[in-house]
Amino acid sequence: xxxxxxxxxxxxxxxxxxxxAPEELPSGFRAxxxxxxxxxxxxxxxxxxxxxxxxxxxARFTRNALVAAPVxxxxxxxxxxxxxxxxxxxxxxxxxxxxxxxxxxEMAATAAAGLGVPRDRVGVASTGVIGLGLERTPVIExxxxxxxxxxxxxxxxxxxxxxxxxxxxxxxxxxxLAAGEVRLSAQxxxxxxxxxGFATMLCFVETDAAIDVHTxxxxxxxxxxxxxxxxxxxxxxxxxxxxxxxxxxxxRVGVTAGSEDELLFAQTLDALLRQLAxxxxxxxxGATRVARLEVTGATGATEPVxxxxxxxxxxxxxxxGGDPNWGRILAAAGQALPxxxxxxxxxxxxxxxxxxxxxxxxxxxxxxxLKHAMRGDEVDIRLSVGVGNETAEIFFCDLGPEYVRVxxxxx
Amino acid sequence: xxxxxxxxxxxxxxxxxxxxAPEELPSGFRAxxxxxxxxxxxxxxxxxxxxxxxxxxxARFTRNALVAAPVxxxxxxxxxxxxxxxxxxxxxxxxxxxxxxxxxxEMAATAAAGLGVPRDRVGVASTGVIGLGLERTPVIExxxxxxxxxxxxxxxxxxxxxxxxxxxxxxxxxxxLAAGEVRLSAQxxxxxxxxxGFATMLCFVETDAAIDVHTxxxxxxxxxxxxxxxxxxxxxxxxxxxxxxxxxxxxRVGVTAGSEDELLFAQTLDALLRQLAxxxxxxxxGATRVARLEVTGATGATEPVxxxxxxxxxxxxxxxGGDPNWGRILAAAGQALPxxxxxxxxxxxxxxxxxxxxxxxxxxxxxxxLKHAMRGDEVDIRLSVGVGNETAEIFFCDLGPEYVRVxxxxx
Lengths: 411, 411
Hints:
2 copies of one chain form a homodimer.
Chain A (H helix, E strand, L loop, with lengths): L17 E3 L8 E6 L10 E6 L5 E6 L7 H7 L8 E8 L5 H19 L6 E8 L6 H11 L8 H6 L8 E9 L2 E10 L12 E6 L2 E2 L1 H13 L5 E2 L9 E6 L6 E2 L4 H23 L7 E8 L4 H9 L2 H9 L4 H10 L9 E4 L2 E5 L2 E2 L4 H11 L3 E7 L5 E8 L3 H8 L3
Helix pairs in contact in A: 1-2, 2-3, 5-6, 7-9
């Protein structure tokens, strides 16, 4: 397949798939993105529609106890039969009381009426500042102007969901199943407040394959677990994280549970969401560098250690500086473990820097390798926390002055 | 009493005590601080000694699973009968294997021999970079040159324990007990990697009062719980946190359990450690502003919420920018709670910005009050997370570009 989208060495797309222009939606899907006035400039309202009445869908939402109004409204929708999603950026519509819920409900109703589908078949998503009232008029008028703009390209849509993202995150793939060719596309946005549990900021997945609800649920769940649930920009779980996947079926090619086709489709979806998740980390607020941390050890120990290291501001600052200050990795790991005497072994870019808790002396050659590894775009860190075979993987970005600048001046 | 040391509005020292010159040690104590060559310049080796053989002591150490060699060695010492502590800065002596432990042991032994006390009556502490071998020779020679420099002032000692601290943190107090006058002094250091559990970075407390071990233990424990355990610079628990308190008894004034004198002494110790803890936050790496967060709610909910908010990089960046972006406070709090529908109420500087989960509309006057409160040196935040009377208090600092600069270039 051609390169381009799958830039990370940590993602392995199936060899058989082919990358299309990123804006190409699978047949049966249309999208639009317009400016409605929430942001001072730029597109801030997106609409996604599936023309097939038999479409199946699946969704995942944040696990934060505080959720946005659109998440409340979406949770009440027919999540296995969605025909569309309406989304705004620039305002998260959180903590706006009944008025906020009413606007989210009206967004779904207006989009549904325009698309000619029942109101419960449209999902809603929002992203932006928390606690600012979302005005009804611009959003509703925005939906009305987006409806006639719906078309087969997702370019405007992918841009309309951006907040502090520096680049749009989307891709479109051709998947040659044995039963016939299908297409799979997705659009996502990241920014800050990225530490998804169960889902991530916003991601929309479309396919013209025909997939029963149960299989789609399972495929999406598995792919989300290996992608958006394994990333952290700043350890902050959003109130708005939402992933929507719609299988329209326009290709008339079915993906059935247990088939070889299901395996290829699952591998493709996995690679797609994993690369999108990595894009979110690479484009985390102020990020200049991505690290992959793999923690191995006893059952139950690896996940808290992986999170503690990935969210350590000291580790993240060292990553920004390209400084192999592994002592901070150990200290953060030690903080996440019960009082004990852990035997940490750490390797950065394949260079072992500590073994069984103690520093490994490095010769000049290894030292220079280490320095080089630490300054790459993608830094590989492996940490063993003692006996055991459980593994936890996490992707995170560095913490630089740009994160501070973006977030000291945001609201 | 005179002002000076007790600068924070969140500390209330007893009216009866008097502040002395910060370097004045209680009678029976001597200290020194010298340059031994761990750092390229500045004092980096400190020695503290108590001349009274009947001295009692108490200590607290980090709860990190990974601990420094000096912490291991100190834990094996006679912690209730310490006569001295030796400390170095510039190197944390962590993850240096048997060699690191041997250096820490030799530090204690050399200091003990010089002071003419048994080896198990000297504690050891270190602070600085993790994972770099601590060379034996400069440290041991440093102790030998510190021994003849021991004197009644703690000025050099207070400076010798500094790492990224911008100012030395120490104070000396006269406490007029009914049974007679005693003195109480302490020296501390902060920096980064500050989120102590059970103890804090480094703090040394001296008094010439005579206090039995059991009472001293209890007094120190209570004061540490209300001071160093309630602060966070960056949520990173150090491997080296240590607090040592020595009661020499040279004043021949006893502090006995249950007496009025014990109460006054306890209040004084509480104010002293609380102000020192606040100094650590105010002098956190790159810090420009301190916040006090008080969380009220159901039993068990307030502590994780307080930690989650205090350690949120988004909340800390907003604090740096003087931006009352309370949505980030709610999102961080929601992340720490089990899936539910929390009714958050938030006030910043006395201005209520959200009630029962929804934004409170502010008139111009309140908005200007809020802005003013958010830009002060000490920002007061109160968060109610629903029904319940449990309260958790935490002090934290902002996250500015200077934190990143210090920590991207540290090792």
